[in-house]
## 1
Amino acid sequence: MTDFTERSVEQELDAVHNHAALLQENGANVMVYGECGWMADNALDVPLSTRRLLPESQVADYADRLSHFAEALFDRYGLRLASITTIS
């Protein structure tokens, strides 16, 4: 899980480097990726119906950065991205 809503593509690539390299070394071809930058501290105790969602005004930028991240992840590590993201 990462905080990509609050990082650049390069910062996110740096943050996942060790995990991506481990997946690559072990022959994986997919990285499961879950955004947690917008999660409440007690997210497991908060009902899904009341959790914080990424504002619609930020969705296009986030989607663009996520696409660039996925491309770079594949180029650097040969990993495809399986993403779990909740938006409004």
## 2
Amino acid sequence: MVLAERSVVEQRYEAVQQVLAGGVPVTEVAARFGVSRQSVHARIRRHRVAGLAGLEDRSHRQRHDKAA
């Protein structure tokens, strides 16, 4: 039996759910998923604001033109 790989969004959602619904400490979830505590907190915040869409990759492109 071949296990299907989970998408990045699915992995992030699982991490968020472990904290919110499972009561697992953020530190433990961060260690399980190989990310920082800050990343887990940011994903929880984004999930609360935008749902699953908040867990998708975000652009790192500059938002404003600095030339004025």
